[in-house]
């Protein structure tokens, strides 16, 4: 198979300077603001993004080294396969977060609910559309036993550094 080369389209800036004590999902980062600088050559791609309340960010876990196929995720004490988790130490260190879009000024997007490290390379942006992005009557595997954990209070630790 041919190598895939992906180039960042911008940088995500957040108050999170270290993995320790970060929110583990955007929903747990209520009120935590950041901004995204889109590189000038991609700024025209922001046309018509105004008016969306949320956007999905696809980014590179730039501080992750290597990967593990079996991990103990933040929401459990048992080991699971990496593809059954949202843990960051993945074969392709790609993260996905849906955040609240506060505003756009030129090539700068102000966002809320940031759960990524400061300086994170942004790979892509997609508008959030509930009809396409939400599902009803889903099964959540091993997470079923943890579905009532207070996600808003859970924070990351150093296990995936």
The coarse silhouette is globular
* Helix coverage percent: under 10%
Beta strand %: 25-35%
What is the straight-line distance between the termini? Answer: 30 Å
Q: Could you say which structural class the secondary elements and strand pairing correspond to?
A: mainly beta
- Domain count: the total is 1
Order of helices and strands: EEEEEEEEH
User: CATH superfamily name?
Assistant: YaeB-like
- The appropriate CATH architecture is Beta Barrel
- Fill in the CATH topology: Elongation Factor Tu (Ef-tu), domain 3
Quick check: average pLDDT?
Answer: 88
The CATH class assignment is Mainly Beta
Computed Rg: 16 Å
Spans of at least 5 consecutive residues whose pLDDT stays below 50 are none
Largest sheet: 6 strands, antiparallel, barrel
Give your account of this protein's structure.
The chain is mostly beta strands and 161 residues long. The protein has a single domain (10-153), classed as YaeB-like (Elongation Factor Tu (Ef-tu), domain 3, Beta Barrel), CATH 2.40.30. The protein is 2% helix and 29% strand. It has one helix at 130-133, and strands at residues 10-13, 33-38, 54-60, 70-71, 80-81, 94-105, 108-112, 120-127. The strands form two sheets. A six-stranded antiparallel barrel has the order 1-2-7-6-3-8. A hairpin with an 8-residue loop joins β4 and β5. The longest helix is centred in the C-terminal third of the chain and has 4 residues, at 130-133. It starts with 9 loop residues before the first strand and ends in a 28-residue tail after the last helix.
């Amino acid at each position: 198979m041919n190598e895939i080369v992906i180039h960042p389209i911008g940088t995500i800036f957040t108050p999170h300077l270290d993995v320790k004590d970060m929110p583990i999902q955007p929903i747990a980062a209520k009120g935590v603001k950041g901004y995204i600088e889109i590189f000038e050559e991609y700024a025209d791609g922001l046309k018509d993004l105004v008016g969306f309340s949320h956007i999905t960010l696809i980014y590179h876990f730039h501080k992750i080294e290597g990967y593990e196929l079996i991990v103990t995720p933040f929401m459990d004490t048992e080991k699971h396969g990496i593809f059954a988790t949202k843990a960051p130490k993945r074969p392709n260190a790609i993260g996905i977060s849906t955040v609240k879009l506060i505003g756009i000024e030129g090539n700068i997007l102000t966002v809320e609910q940031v759960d990524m490290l400061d300086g994170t390379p942004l790979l892509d942006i997609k508008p959030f559309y509930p009809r396409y992005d939400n599902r009803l009557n889903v099964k959540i595997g091993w997470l079923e036993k943890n579905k009532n954990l207070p996600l808003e209070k859970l924070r990351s630790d150093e296990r995936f550094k």
